[in-house]
Automatic annotation (TrEMBL):
<keyword id="KW-0813">Transport</keyword>
<keyword id="KW-0067">ATP-binding</keyword>
<dbReference type="InterPro" id="IPR027417">
    <property type="entry name" value="P-loop_NTPase"/>
</dbReference>
<dbReference type="Pfam" id="PF00005">
    <property type="entry name" value="ABC_tran"/>
</dbReference>
<protein>
    <submittedName>
        <fullName>ABC-2 type transport system ATP-binding protein</fullName>
    </submittedName>
</protein>
<dbReference type="GO" id="GO:0016887">
    <property type="term" value="F:ATP hydrolysis activity"/>
</dbReference>
<dbReference type="GO" id="GO:0005524">
    <property type="term" value="F:ATP binding"/>
</dbReference>
<keyword id="KW-0547">Nucleotide-binding</keyword>
<feature type="domain" description="ABC transporter">
    <location>
        <begin position="2"/>
        <end position="227"/>
    </location>
</feature>
<dbReference type="InterPro" id="IPR051782">
    <property type="entry name" value="ABC_Transporter_VariousFunc"/>
</dbReference>
<dbReference type="InterPro" id="IPR003593">
    <property type="entry name" value="AAA+_ATPase"/>
</dbReference>
<dbReference type="InterPro" id="IPR003439">
    <property type="entry name" value="ABC_transporter-like_ATP-bd"/>
</dbReference>
Length: 299
């Protein structure tokens, strides 16, 4: 389990993370979302033990992470720009990983070669960006980590490889109870595999919920009435977005389904539909609610 309490991080005078409280259950796949510059990468590097926070605590399995080799041996971090030693082959990088991680599984290393269909004798620097990303997963998964931290992991991968990697990740969670934390701007990919979601904005965690709870708490509705409605309509609820198209009113609101239904039906609408929301729409409207506005994206 990953537990973060009252975490703060500054770069010189710039506060990057402010009083972050966050928890990731063992065996969960946690999606970390946020605006550009929100502090996501900094947070992932702190969790991975690459950076040290100024205040607060970061614990994995009740132990500190920074400068703790026994914890780092159970953890793999794939950054947005993978790093490899210059002119090393995949096999040589595998040998290096084997010397660092006691859980290294050589059989799995050979099995993943067949899955990724890349010759382990290839020099990594000669490979394309997408193939280098595959090598990152190849090495990380061969180390059999208990915790896998991913920063923009699907960048540069084609649809077939993305699906293959997601299957590998889900299998490791199911079979070994591996815990994954993933930051990505590709919200469709996050929605496909994550069961917990955290949203960071300007260094603060503004939402942390299960994916199901997050989507069930935010509703996209369209309504129409036979006569003009009062301007106070839906004031009882938190309205993240509203728009009028002809006679149709579109709203993104937060609240319980039965309370919304009961309230709207009092106005006897001639049209009342609740439309499905994607994670991307939930993210956009939550961000709009904290001032990160994006205009006219309802479709």
């Amino acid at each position: 389990m990953i537990e973060i309490n009252q975490l703060n991080k500054k770069y010189e005078r710039t506060e990057v993370l402010n009083d972050i409280d966050l928890s990731v259950s063992e065996g969960a796949i946690y999606g970390l979302l946020g605006s550009n510059g929100a502090g996501k990468t900094t947070l992932l590097k702190i969790i991975s033990g690459l950076l040290k926070q100024n205040n607060g605590s970061v614990k994995i399995d009740n132990s500190d992470v920074f400068e703790q080799p026994n914890i780092k041996e159970e953890l793999q971090f794939i950054p947005d720009t993978p790093f490899f030693f210059p002119h090393y082959t995949i096999q040589q990088m595998g040998d290096f990983y084997q010397s660092c991680y006691s859980n290294w599984n050589q059989d799995r290393f050979y099995q993943l070669e067949k899955i990724f269909k890349i010759d382990r004798k290839e020099k990594i620097h000669t490979l394309s960006k997408g193939m280098q990303r595959q090598v990152s997963f190849w090495l990380a998964l061969s180390a059999m980590p208990s915790y896998l931290i991913l920063d923009e992991p699907f960048d540069g991968l084609d649809a077939v490889i993305r699906k293959k990697i997601k299957q590998l990740l889900i299998a490791d969670v199911a079979e070994r109870n591996m815990t994954i934390m993933i930051s990505s701007h590709n919200l469709k990919e996050v929605e496909d595999i994550c069961d917990q979601i955290g949203i960071i904005h300007q260094g603060e965690l503004i939402i942390e919920k299960s994916l199901d709870d997050l989507k069930s708490d935010v509703h996209k509705i369209q309504v129409a009435f036979s006569k003009e409605i009062d301007s106070s309509f839906l004031d009882e609820f938190t309205c993240l977005h509203k728009e009028k198209r002809g006679s149709i009113h579109l709203y993104i609101i937060k609240g319980q389904t039965f309370e919304i239904d009961q309230y709207i039906n009092k106005y006897q609408p001639i049209v009342y539909d609740r439309l499905p929301l994607t994670l991307e729409e939930v993210f956009v409207y939550e961000m709009e609610g904290v001032g990160y506005a994006i205009e006219n994206i309802l479709v």
